[in-house]
Amino acid sequence: MSAEVFVSYARTDRDRVMGLVERLRSASIGVWVDEGGIHGATLWGQEIVEAIDASKVMLLMISDSSINSDNVVKELSIASEDKKPILPVYLHSAEIPRSMRYQLAGIQHIEFFDGQEDEAFQSMIVALSRLGVSASDTKAIQSHPLKQEPESSSSPRPSDKPAQITKKSGLITFILACAVIGLLLVLIMRPTEPTETLESKKVEEQESQTHSRTSIAVLPFQNIGPKDDEGFLADGMRAEIDAMLSMTPSLTVKNASRMKDSDLDPVAIGKGLKVDSILIGNVIQSEGKLRVIVQLVDTKTEENIWAKTFDKTENDVFAVQREIAQSVADGLKLTLNEGQKEQIAKRQAQDLEAYNLYIQGRKLWNTRTREGMRDSVEKFELALAKDPQFALAHVGIADAYNFLVGYGHSPPKISSPKAKEELQKAFALNDNLSEAHASMGWIYFCYDWNWDAAKKSFGKALTINPSNPEARRWLSHLYMILGEVPKAMNEIEMGINIEPDSANMLTTKSHYLISTGQFDKAIETAIEAESKDTQFVTAYKWLGQSYAFKGEFEASLESYSRGNKIYKEKYELDRAITFALMGDKKKAKSILNTELSKK
User: Does residue 334 share a domain with residue 359?
Assistant: First the structure.
């Protein structure tokens, strides 16, 4: 039997390691392990290098002894340089030293602790199978969730290219690599405390921190009258006032887009969104004139804190937005300082048509489809033609380029530099846009792989606007890559708290739940995402994968079938994963070959 797995370990751990080796061999896995003291021989270099080179996966046994072993560090370096998949296996709790952090950054691990060896072994079989190592223990592959944790580092860097595909068993590895390219790595974690517990603790802490702050939701403004039938002005009015108020540090602003056309009373809305007050508005346009009727309502008493009517011309819409934001602050006894007022004024367009085009572009971008995102660029460019000083339109173009890359519709080398160029133009016009700093953080994160710079940019975005949902979600992606899963879950929960009806937020959470082995919750969350937006492209992806990794293959394929009715053949690689997990490698390979022939 050829040795597909190379085992690196410290001599003092030999008894436990050899017991594990025997179990792997009994599962028909070929294992190479130093049983005869090669470490002390003069031919160490040649034999070890050849063994690592011939293997598919390095099994790195982590212990206090191994992390201090020069030979183990050498073996890890060789495997890392050869871009061999590495699966760390902890024999007990141990802190990864600096000499190993770079190679292990973002890599999943298994806890082979005393008393839980059986469960850990099943997880190991699953992990090795996904890394292209075949085993006879197929029952374990289908019936046991993987409970692992990615390593953390201050400066991890993913592999520059996927591992070479082998004819026999590299198929699953390649399919998985293709399927998860949008987030770089599939991260699996089992924290010291259950993720569920840590997640709930973080959310409780966040709720405790925000409870003492005044909270508000700006409901979608109603468009009244024949003009602007599509409601772009009304939608833009709500979105911009929402963004302005979010700059107030002592005010929590929650997204209320789901309340459009809602018949609920203010008390019910307040309970549903957990806010102290709501802002309700009607917009009337006629013959160049504009009337905006606004009410600030206490959700506990249903009393108007204030109600105002603004009669202006259409060209005064941006001044009206500022006046409403100031009136809300006054009504809630909050203070907008001069710096905030200046930020609010600078972020606005100077042309109403330019702003309407921007709102249209954002709606298209939010579809996350290739056509929608490409069309959004045209809307943003038209907005800039109307108002060359409108910095947010440059950010819109950058976001479109970023996610054309992120969803696999454009090469990074082409679109990412274009996105960065657009953001530089935005910063030249206005350096205090939360959206711009968040977008730049995404480029640092996905294109430059500069984690520190990404974290700073996301932090800057959230300093300007703590209620920026995309900054929260993108920061959660960064934390997942760094292996800080509780922080990632906390950020995505905060994002959902801001945008409770966002299918994007919910599918992101579903993805993380898959990564932590919480398949039932992942399924529940993905179903909720689909119910919020049946057109959202990744809802079907993560729902299908949730079912697949749980072993409910028919439900997985049915999820992709629903998605394919909307986006034809969008989920073929995901279907291939399901067939591979079912053991139908012939079908999986057929799908893969078909997809490769399209490239």
Answer: no
